[in-house]
UniProtKB/TrEMBL annotation, chains A, B:
CDD domains hit by this protein: Trans_IPPS_HT (cd00685)
Superkingdom of the source species: Archaea
Short name of any one Pfam family annotated for the protein: polyprenyl_synt
Identification of the protein by name: Geranylfarnesyl diphosphate synthase
GO molecular function annotation: geranylfarnesyl diphosphate synthase activity; metal ion binding
Known EC number: 2.5.1.81
Cofactor requirements of the protein: Mg(2+)
Source species taxonomy: Archaea, Methanobacteriati, Methanobacteriota, Stenosarchaea group, Halobacteria
Family affiliation: Belongs to the FPP/GGPP synthase family.
Record organism: Halopelagius fulvigenes
InterPro entries attached to this UniProt entry: Isoprenoid_synthase_dom_sf, Polyprenyl_synt, Polyprenyl_synt_CS
Keywords: Magnesium, Metal-binding, Transferase
Amino acid sequence: MNSEATEERVLEAVRQRRELVNEALDEDIPLEEPERLYEATRYLLQAGGKRLRPTVTLLAAEALADVEPLSTDYRAFPTLDSREIDVMTAAASIEVIQSFTLIHDDIMDDDDLRRGVPAVHKEYDTETAILAGDTLYAKAFELMTHTGADPENGLEAVRMLATTCTQICEGQALDVEFERRTEVLPDEYLEMIELKTAVLYGAAAATAGVLMGAGEDVVEALYRYGIDSGCAFQIQDDVLDLTVPSEKLGKQRGSDLVENKETIITLHARQQGVDVDSLLDASGVEDVTEEAVEEAVAELDDAGSIDFAREKAHELTDRAKDHLEVLPDNEARSLLRDIADYLITRGY
Amino acid sequence: MNSEATEERVLEAVRQRRELVNEALDEDIPLEEPERLYEATRYLLQAGGKRLRPTVTLLAAEALADVEPLSTDYRAFPTLDSREIDVMTAAASIEVIQSFTLIHDDIMDDDDLRRGVPAVHKEYDTETAILAGDTLYAKAFELMTHTGADPENGLEAVRMLATTCTQICEGQALDVEFERRTEVLPDEYLEMIELKTAVLYGAAAATAGVLMGAGEDVVEALYRYGIDSGCAFQIQDDVLDLTVPSEKLGKQRGSDLVENKETIITLHARQQGVDVDSLLDASGVEDVTEEAVEEAVAELDDAGSIDFAREKAHELTDRAKDHLEVLPDNEARSLLRDIADYLITRGY
C-alpha cells in the first residue's frame, strides 16, 4: 500500500474514533463544582488533539476481540473471559493522563501555546493549572477503576498506569537534566524519550490486553508495539522540527536548535564532529532567519544525522509492526500497523 | 481519663507507628534514577511529620482485626477473609498523597517553609517540585495496588484514593476561590475543609476497612470517623493560629488574620457584625505586633467566635468517636478515640 493511501486510511480511522473519544471525555470529565477548576481541567481536552493514544487502545481491543472495527459498542465490549467491559473509559483515562502531563509540562517549560490556544497556565494561572493537572491525574485513575473488567485485571491496569506515570515523570526529569549536562549519549536520549513519550503509547496498547484478560505474551507484545512506535513518533518529531516549513509546523522551524534542545539528530552530529553549539547563532526564535535554519539543517544533513534519525525511526517502526504478529490477522491489526507507519510518515 | 494522660498515650502510639511508617516510606519510595528527582520526592518525607494519617490506617486495621496493638506484622496482616495483606503499604500510600499535596500547595501558596525546612520548590526549584509531587502521586497509586488484598477490595481502595485526591483538589480550588469572594458562609467553609483536609483522614481510616473486607457499614463508619475528626483538626488549627504564642506555633500568631484568610472564626465574627477586615492593620507578618494580635483576638473572643469554633470542634469530635462504636471494643479502638480527642486538645 502506498503511503498516501495509508495516511488516508489512518486519518479516517482516527477521526471516527476521535469523535467517540471526545464524547466519552465530555461525559467522563463533566463540568462540576468548583466551576473554574473544572473549566480549566476541560479546557485543554476541548482544545483538540488527534486522540492517537486512545485510538490505539480501542484498535488494540478490536484486534484482540477479532471484531469488525467500529462494529461493537466500546462501552460494552466483549473480553476474552466473556465478560463485557467499558474499554472506552480506559481509552479516555489514557488521554486524560496525556492531557495532565501537557498541562504540567507547559508550566515547567513556560510554553505559551498548546494546540493553538494559550496553555492552561496562561489562560488561567499557574495555581489553577497545577490543580487542573492534579485533578485530571486523579480522574484518570478513577476512570481506570470503572471499566468493569475482572478486578484482578482492573487492578493490573491501574498498576500499569501508575508505573507509566512514574516513568513519564522520570523522562521529564531526564529531559530537564540533559539540558544542563555537557554530554548526552544517543542511547541516553533514546531512554529519555522512551520514558517521557513512548511508555504512554505502550500503556495505551497494553491496557486493552490487560483489561480483556489476554495472556502475558500478548500484553507484552502490545506494550512493545507502543514503546517502539512511540519512540519512532518522537524521533519523527525531531526530524520534522528541522525539515518542515514554519507555516506548516505551526511554530518556528528549527526551534529545538534555537533552544539548544538536544535531539537524536544533534547528538549524532556531535559524534560526527559537528560543532552543534555554533550551528545557529540566535538568542531566541524571534531572532532566527529561514536562511540560517536552512544552513544549519544542511550541515546536519551533510553529517548524515538526519538520515540517521530517519533510519532509526524506520527500524523502530518495523519492530513495532513485528510485535503485532501475535494478534489475530484482521482489519484492526492492519490499522495498528498503518498507525505505526503514519507516525513516521506524517508531515506534521 | 484526663487530657494530659490521653495526650501522652496518643503521642506514644503515634511515635511507635511513626518509626515503622518511616521505615516503610524509605523502602517504598527508594532513591532511584534520576537521582535529583528522587531526592526531591524523598526530601519532604524525610523532613518529618507526625504520620497521623498512616497511624489512623494502622490503628483502624488493628481495631478491625481485634488484635493487640503492635502485636502483628503490618506487612502480613490478617484480614476478615483470612487472607494476609500489607496494610503498611496502604498506610504509606496515604502519607505519600499527603506529601504530594503539601509540595504542590506550597508552590501554589508560595510558602517558603514546611516542617521547619525550605519548601521543595525553594530547596530545589518549581519545576522539580511539580515533578516531585507528580512522582509521589503515581507512587501512591502504585503502592495501593500492592497490598495483596482481594483484587475487588484492592480496586475499591484505589477508587477511594482517586476520589479522595479529586476532592482534595476541589477543596484547594475552593480555598483559593474563597480568598477572592466577598462573602463566604460558615457552611461553605466547613464544606471546603472537609474536601481539602478531612477526606484524606476519611480515606486513611476507611482504606483499612476496604482492604480487609469489612462490611459497607463499617467502612462508612470509619470514613465518617476520619471526616469528622479531620474537620475538627482543621478548626483546631484555626483556633491555634489565634491563641498560641508565635514561638510555640513556629509561625506568626494571627497569620491567618494578617493574610486575610477566612476561617470558621472570622466567618462567625462577620455574622456577629464584627468588622473583620479592620481587625488587624498590617501589610504583612513582619509588620504585625503582638499587641495588635492580642487586641484582634480579644474582639473575636468577645463576639463568641473562638468559643463557637471550639464548640464546633468538640461536637465533631464527639460524632467522630460515636462512629467508632461499630468496631470491636479493644485497645486500638480506644486509641482511635484518643486520637480524635488529641486532634482538638493538642497545643500546636
